[in-house]
Amino acid sequence: MALHEIAQGLDSAGHPFIWVVRSISWTPPEGWEERVKGRGLVIREWVDQRSILAHPAIGGYLSHCGWNSVLESLSMGVPILTWPIGAEQPLNAKLVVNVLKAGLAMDSTLDEVREEGVVYGCNAISSGVKELMGEESGRLARKRAKEIGLMARNVVEKDGSSSKKLDELINSLRI
Question: Which entry of 27, 53, 58, 98 is 20 to 30 Å from 82 by CA?
Answer without folding.
Answer: 27
